[in-house]
Amino acid sequence: MSQTLYGAPASAALDDDQLLDELLRPGGLTAVFQPIVRLADSEVIAYEGLSRSRTGVTAPRDAWFEAATRTDRRTELEVACLEAIAEAGPPPKERLLFVNISPSVLLDETHALPRARLPERLVLELTERDGFDDLDALRRALDPWIAGGTRIAIDDTGAGYSSLQRAVQLLPEFLKLDRELISGIDRDRHRQALVAALVGFARQTGASLIAEGVERPAELAWLSQAGVAMAQGYLLARPAPPWSEVVARHRPQRAAVEPANEALAAALQTARTQREACEVVADHLFRRGGLMPSIYLELGGRLRCQAQRGLWQVLDGMLPSAGVTGLTYRTGKAQFLPDVSWSPEYLEAIPGVVSEYCVPLFAETSEPVGALNVESVIPLDDATCHDIGTCATLLGARLGELPPEQARVPLRRLAKTAANLVAVDDPARTPGVVLHAARELSAMDSALLATVGPTGALRVNAAVGTLAEALATADTSSLDRLFGALGPLTSVYSSGDTTGRILPMSEAFRGAGARSVIALPLIARGRRTGVLVVAHHHPMQLGPEQVEPLELLAILAGSCLEMATTVDELRHRAHRDSLTTLGNHSSFHARLEDTPADEPCSILMFDIDRFKAVNDRGGHLIGDQVLRQVAAALAATTSEAVYRVGGDEFAMLVPFDDPRRALALARQLATVADGVLAASGAALSSGIAVREPGEALIATLARADQALYRAKGEGGGCHLAGGS
């Protein structure tokens, strides 16, 4: 047993196991919660749950986990801490709850983690308590949490290489800056440089920074000016029972509106294109923390995404009739959703959104040119909505000064692909050519093509690449959800911003190993005929350069696939009898031509006796019905192909030259047909010829035909032709 002692005097000290037994006994742990504050407006957006001892244990919390590690009871302790935090229930006002967890505990299956008892709006804060570095295993352990809507944070970012490596590899939604990095940052240029670099990293990846351990007003002021979105620390609020607010005298001052607007207006003047102006505003709003902006401009009758921050997926090429953004553009009026679950117009781009505010963009005309949409993980207040409206006004003014965005027509990249696709003369090859082109245009490693079948359900036609097998066998409901979501869109794609999380409606693809996905509808003659999915096993920063050529490919592919289907159907019809669906005269003769000269075989010919009388008595409709019934009976009796080669004549080519076997098959088929024909007073006659060595099949056919007419001349039955 470990002899490490805690406290004084020694007679009252506890060793490792005693300390843990004291903490882990029923009621031994409780929880306190420290607010996480958005610096732009002093709003509490989340709480971090922290465990405390109820039993008077004086050892610091770090010592608890050190003792648990030494005694191999780490998972037991962390689970107990989570259980204590879960007792408080969810935070108020839809705020997030951060909880600490070690990567090794996520992988330890000896104790069940209390996910069901923790709030739905949860953030897992990966700690530095162990030296775990198997990031692939960590990703797999996080997958079920992420699939359930849990967000990810990295604790103590900047404290060491491992936290930075996790930030790069996992691309979390939150980066919590180490308290040692924050302490005294207002007067340390080296720390300032590192935090500035992390601010830039966070903007590029769509993560939000949270400064921990803020204790001085000067630190808070520097962090706010540097673009750090959120903070927590004793200056703002100490850990307390649920659910405390920020103490008034420590609240950060809300940034003055006018200087902020002036800074945004100045930044907009540096933009040289409308897209750059949209990027400036998206970045400005995202720095506030908790806001996820997306900006759309109308191009070619569709709303095209120009900039976005913080979203897991991009809904692009939106019809003006679709979603809150479309409603805003269509009506020219701002739309406010205090609770997105109440609105049938809401289109989910990221799980966990609480509120949405969308403002139309006006340039030089009275008609909207687009819309600025902002989604939030906490309720939006009036002041924030007012600031969003101001951003929209400033952006609209700048858009009016800049040349309009030109619809990109990436035909140069598509030209070679288009030529290859339309040159395909074998319909069976068309899906493969489409998938090869999709991978080439997107630089992604896998692709899948699914089309709407005769029943209206999607079916996978082909899949290629490293993820092909996994994609092709993924849950088909994911394809159905994608197909449904693509109704008013030209594409849906993962933004690559956070945790490698991809489209919320396609978690099966994440399970297949995809970390970036583009989904596009196949269009033919104005209707959706399928879906093209392109995927990559690493997160990618996707945008118009990759997506728009694929949109054109999807349109071209939809037409080519429909044409290929039509051609295939025409070929099928050209070789099938329209009445009976059996092979017709031309397909039978094609079969004769394709049969090798030395292949042993026999030809069977059939004719319905007294069929004219059937037509005379019942009319041609009855006669057609009899022919269909006879054809179905013949086809159901043998695995060999049956052909209709004349009005009431049928033929077969069978791959054997045994006369007795050929005669037995002919008699079997005649018996089955006679069962159908008896009610009409008709019967089936047959003639059989066995191919002789070196004989051309056309000659064998002539002998079988002669044998058939000899049988009919003798009153019916079966006749086997003799040698030539």
Please characterize this protein's 3D structure.
The structure is a single chain. By secondary structure, the chain is of the alpha/beta class. The strands form four sheets. Strands 1-2-3-4-5-6-7-8 form an eight-stranded mixed β-barrel, surrounded by four helices. α10 (257-269) runs antiparallel to α11 (274-286) and α14 packs parallel to α19. It is elongated, with a radius of gyration of 37 Å. The protein starts with 15 loop residues before the first helix and ends with a strand.
Brief account:
With 724 residues, the chain is α/β, with parallel strands linked by helices.
Task: Present the secondary structure layout.
Blueprint: H1 16-24, E1 29-38, E2 43-53, H2 61-70, H3 74-86, E3 96-101, H4 103-107, E4 122-126, H5 135-147, E5 151-157, H6 161-170, E6 174-177, H7 179-182, H8 189-205, E7 208-211, H9 217-226, E8 230-231, H10 257-269, H11 274-286, E9 291-299, E10 302-308, E11 313-316, H12 323-331, E12 335-337, E13 355-362, E14 368-376, H13 382-401, H14 411-422, H15 430-442, E15 446-452, E16 458-465, H16 468-472, H17 476-485, E17 491-494, H18 507-511, E18 516-524, E19 527-536, H19 544-574, H20 585-594, E20 602-609, H21 611-618, H22 620-637, E21 642-644, E22 649-654, H23 659-677, E23 683-690, H24 697-713, E24 718-720
